Amino acid sequence: MDRSGGRDRGAAVATHDLTKHYGAVVALDSLDLEVRAGEIFGFLGPNGAGKSTTIRLLLGLVRPTRGTATILGVPVDDVARAHRLVGYVPGDVALWPQLTGTETLELLGNVAGGVDAAFRDELLERLQLDPSPRVRSLSKGNRQKVALVAAMMTRPEVLLLDEPTAGLDPLMEAEFQLLAREAAARGQTLFLSSHILDEVQDLCDRVGILRAGRLVEVATLNDLRRIGATKVEIVVDGLLPTLDDVPGVSAVETVAGNPGAVRVTVTGSPGPLLQRLAGVPVVRLRTEEPSLEEIFLTYY
Ligand SMILES: Nc1ncnc2c1ncn2[C@@H]1O[C@H](COP(=O)(O)OP(=O)(O)OP(=O)(O)O)[C@@H](O)[C@H]1O
Questions:
Q1: Is the pTM of this model over 0.90?
Q2: Which value does ipTM take for this structure?
């Protein structure tokens, strides 16, 4: 979905052959990715897949072994310019323990510039964060909220968020989702890493799936659902036609005790199966869509 309001600003995030080795470990292997301006892009993968490494590379916090990355056309190694365009929440939020939340936001706001104080206060209220205690005495979830407010309060063009809702309770997670949608509606781009499918499935336009440092898929969630195999149970009155050779049909299982019943798995269009069943007295046809969880497990 294009939420950029028709503005054509090119790719918000673009990487080419982006690669990071740590000794013998290939944390990220030749990533080619384009995230469009104004989209909410989910970056999914199991622990250790390379999500945080990618975000650190985009922030210029680590240097690539090979390859390039840009934020709205600005090379990420031009740190001063690139950081004017981004807000971020790191995976392991590290803040100054001796400062209060308010002081932290003031400090980070001075560095970033362009803080809208009214919007910052709205964020604090909506995330129900009292920023007056010292950071050292804040819970993990509340520290996460400080980082979220700091990332969002300047309304940056691009938000790079590494597991942004880690430690938030479900109510606050829902509020974060609202804030993320509002940001995208304003034309901001969100790049959201997560290993939790639920977190991205309601929010993201497209997702990239990373496994062991390699991008294995980039697709909309609807496309992913279509890629998955649908289970179909068919009951006919009489003899079943042969189904093994129907294009897209696999895992044909008969049902014990019922010679007219069969379970099959269909990938892609169900058309060929329906053609084969034309003229057969079908008494029951039940389909079961794959859950996104099942689809993701096939990638992981
Ligand atoms: N500083 C480092 N030194 C050595 N190896 C590292 C370093 N940082 C990351 N790695 C390795 O690179 C790989 C990718 O790690 P990364 O933190 O990017 O994964 P991730 O997808 O963010 O995982 P998680 O969901 O657990 O945060 C892992 O094998 C990790 O052990």
A1: no
A2: 0.95
